[in-house]
Write a structure and sequence with these properties.
By secondary structure, the protein is of the alpha+beta class. The chain has three helices and eleven strands. The chain has one domain.
Length: 177
């Protein structure tokens, strides 16, 4: 019995220290999604980047459509019904890029994890992407993030070259957040 207690104390002490040393974003700050779109005719590629900023840095992020940064929260509508805030899709982004003879269109919709903003993952949002080349579908309804928690990989970015080859860049959830 004493042996078990000696082993338990260091483990519990380790867990307490680990929790205290975790970055603030791991347990108290909100993650704010940022989508960046770039069309580079010289490289003949179009890119969509998915990232997050934490806390006030994300809340106060200076989105700039002219520079290709978009706020997924602008794609949703929040309606208050008593003490409940309900999320719904308000609009889609349609981003275009011409590479040589080909026209590419990225259609970006919000990925709402919970329509009740006060519920589990209700304050989390990602996007779903469809890509077209000359009105022909290349990628259909691909979520950048499938789930609001767990170990599912997160799509960090998408690159499409001028002939329409699509490359997806996935990372583990722990590397994304």
């Amino acid at each position: 019995m004493i042996k078990a207690c000696k082993q338990f104390i260091p483990i519990s002490l380790f867990l307490s220290l680990a929790a205290a040393l975790l970055p603030a974003q791991a347990n108290s700050e909100r993650a704010w999604p940022i989508i960046t779109f770039s069309c580079d005719q010289s490289k003949k590629e179009v890119k969509l980047k998915n990232e997050v900023k934490w806390g006030l840095a994300g809340e106060k992020f200076d989105f700039n459509v002219d520079q290709g940064t978009y706020n997924p929260w602008e794609l949703v509508e929040i309606k208050e019904k008593g003490s409940i805030k309900k999320l719904s899709e308000k609009k889609q982004l349609k981003l275009e890029c011409r590479l040589g003879k080909n026209d590419f269109q990225f259609v970006i919709r919000p990925k709402i994890f919970n329509h009740n903003m006060n519920g589990h993952c209700g304050d989390r949002l990602s996007v779903i992407v469809s890509i077209y080349k000359n009105n022909e579908m290349l990628l259909d309804e691909k979520p950048m993030e499938k789930f609001c928690n767990g170990n599912a990989p997160v799509l960090r970015g998408i690159k499409v070259n001028g002939d329409g080859r699509v490359k997806l860049y996935e990372v583990s959830r722990s590397r994304f957040y």
